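[job 4471] stage=fold_predict status=RUNNING
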Amino acid sequence: MLHAAAMLLMIGSAITAAGCCLVAGRLAPRDVPWQARQSAVVMAAGMVALAAAEDDARAALLVAVAGLASAMLGVVGTRGRPHAAACFHRALGCVVMAVCALALLGASLRAGVAVRSGGGTAGVHAGHGVVVPFALVAVAGVVGLLVLMLAARVRHGSGVDAPGRHVALLRVVRRGRAVSAAEAGTGSGRILLAAEGVAMAVSLAVMGAMVLAL
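[job 4471] inference complete, writing structure tokens
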């Protein structure tokens, strides 16, 4: 029951994050380029695939390859751009998902070895060496990415790296003056991006907990 609830939470939060990213990309395309959108979609699809085929080694391997490919695409052409940090966080999320998939792949191989050896301890220990390194790296990656996302949110909230036009928009709203449709869309996009960050953090935390339980 608890495992099924964790799976549903991971899938639901991943899909929510991808949906928020796609809608934010339509409202504020400059802040959410195609690199960010494809990373969010691949991450959500990968988590759904891992949940749907939990013990399938081929699915875990496919998710790992797709996550690494998406991570490379996610940082193409973003150097020096204002949205580079956000794209990097999503790309790093795909890398973390790929490592988690490899850890699940190792667990699946360990189970297969144990079954073929008749459940003997030799088979279990043979596969255990495959699982532990990936599991440790995956958990460390999840924790590190969550810390980076939190630090970025704190900097953004303090106004350290907030764009000047966003500060100006806040001043206009406070004074009760009308804003343009483009400015309103940008504000709505930022709200969606904040929701995406929370949903992404939840899905990664659940995946890290699943890998830690291997």
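[job 4471] summary: The radius of gyration is 20 Å.
[job 4471] exit 0
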